[in-house]
Design brief:
Keywords: Oxidoreductase. The chain is of the alpha/beta class. Helix content is 38%, strand content 13%. The chain binds nicotinamide-adenine-dinucleotide.
C-alpha cells in the first residue's frame, strides 16, 4: 500500500532526538524523503558533542527509506537557507517543513537573565521564522512558475504558549509568538498552495523526562505508553501530507491517544455605550462583563492541572 507521503520531501528541524526524531522516522515510514536537521546542542542550547542527525539518517536507511543530514543552526539565515537548499540538492523539491528544534532556559521572571530571554526567543521564534521564510520563497517561486505545490508547514508551539507556564516566561512568550506567526503565515501563503498549522505536544523527551518524571514515565506493565514521542507524530505526518488539504491556520494539542482542536481568542462579553467612560465607569463595566465571562484556564504550575 502506498504511504501517505509517497514522493514528498520533508524537512524536520531538531530531528536528531526526541519529537523531531520520531516525526522524521514516521514521515519516512509513510514514503517521504527526509532532511534530518539537528545542531546537536545540549538541553540549554550550549554546544553538544556532535549532531545526532546522522544517526537518525542511518535508522531511516536501515528501514529502507531515504534521508540526508543537515547540521546547521536553524536560527541563522545561513542555517535556514542551507536547510532548504539541502532538500533541493538531495531530492530536487520541498513539500513539507516541520519546525520543531528548540531548547529551554527556565527561570522565574525576576531571575531571568537577558541572555536566557534572547537565546530562547531566538531558537524558537526566529528558528521558526527563518526556515519558514526560506521555504516560502521557494514555494512562491514554484507557484509563479506554474508549478504550485501542496506545501505544508507544521509549527511546534506548547501548552506553555497557549496558557502560560510558571518559570517559563521566555519559552511561553516564544511559543505564543509561534501561534501568531502560524496564523499570519496561513493567511499569507494560502494563495501559493501552502498550509500552515501548529501543534502543542506533550511527550517524554530529555526536555521533560526529569521535570515531569512521574507523568512522563512509561508504564511498567507494558500497557499503552501514552507519553512516547511517537504518539505525537501521526498528526504531524497527516498535517504534512497532501491528505490534509483544506486544513490551515489551526492549532492542535496532541499527546498519547488524544488530539484536541484548540479554539483561539474570540470575543466574550462586550459592552459599547457609544461614548467615552471615566476610569471608574470603565472599572464598573469591566467587573460586570467579567462576572458573565468564562473564567480563564490556569497557567501551568499555578493551579489545578487541566484534565
Ligand atoms: N517534550 C514535550 O513534552 C514538549 C512539549 C511542548 C513543546 N515541545 C516542543 O517540541 C520541540 C521538540 O522538543 P523535544 O522535547 O523533542 O526536545 P529535544 O531536546 O529532545 O529535541 C530538540 C532538538 O533540537 C535540537 N536543536 C536545538 N537548537 C537547535 C538549532 N538552533 N538548530 C538545529 N537544531 C537545534 C537539539 O539538538 C535537539 O536534538 C521543541 O520545540 C519543544 O519546545 C515539547
Amino acid at each position: 500500500m502506498a504511504g501517505l507521503c509517497e514522493g514528498r520531501v520533508v524537512v524536520v528541524t531538531g530531528a536528531g532526538r526526541g519529537l523531531g526524531r520520531a516525526h522524521a522516522l514516521a514521515f519516512a515510514a509513510e514514503g517521504a524523503k527526509v532532511v534530518v536537521n539537528d545542531l546537536g546542542v545540549g538541553l540549554d542550547g550550549l554546544p553538544g558533542p556532535e549532531s545526532p542527525a546522522a544517526q537518525v539518517v542511518r535508522e531511516i536507511e536501515e528501514q529502507g527509506g531515504e534521508a540526508v543530514a543537515h547540521g546547521g543552526d536553524i536560527a541563522t539565515p545561513q542555517g535556514a537557507d542551507s536547510l532548504v537548499e539541502a532538500a533541493l540538492d538531495a531530492f530536487g523539491r520541498l513539500d513539507t517543513l516541520v519546525n520543531n528544534a528548540g531548547f529551554l532556559r527556565d527561570r522565574m521572571l525576576v531571575n531571568l537573565d537577558e541572555d536566557d530571554w534572547d537565546a530562547v526567543m531566538r531558537v524558537h521564534l526566529k528558528g521558526h521564522f527563518l526556515p519558514l521564510r526560506a521555504a516560502a520563497a521557494w514555494w512562491r517561486a514554484q507557484a509563479k512558475a506554474g508549478r504550485p505545490a501542496a506545501a505544508r508547514v507544521v509549527n511546534t508551539s506548547s501548552g506553555a504558549g497557549l496558557l502560560g507556564s510558571v518559570g517559563q516566561g521566555n519559552y511561553s512568550a516564544a511559543k505564543a509568538g509561534i501561534l501568531g506567526l502560524t496564523l499570519v503565515a496561513a493567511a499569507e501563503m494560502g494563495r501559493y498552495g501552502v498550509q500552515v498549522n501548529a501543534i502543542a505536544p506533550a511527550a517524554r523527551t530529555r526536555m521533560t523526562e526529569r521535570t515531569f518524571a512521574q507523568t512522563m514515565a512509561a508504564p511498567e506493565d507494558g500497557g499503552f505508553d501514552a507519553m512516547a514521542p511517537e504518539n505525537v507524530s501521526p498528526l504531524v505526518v497527516w498535517l504534512g501530507a497532501d491528505a490534509s488539504a483544506g486544513v490551515t491556520g489551526r492549532v492542535f494539542e496532541t499527546e498519547g491517544g488524544r488530539i484536541t482542536v484548540m479554539e483561539g481568542w474570540r470575543p466574550g462579553p462586550t459592552a459599547d455605550r457609544g461614548t467615552r467612560r471615566t476610569p471608574a465607569e470603565a472599572g464598573e463595566t469591566t467587573l460586570e462583563l467579567l462576572a458573565s465571562a468564562e473564567p480563564p484556564l490556569p497557567a501551568y504550575g499555578s493551579g489545578p492541572a487541566r484534565g
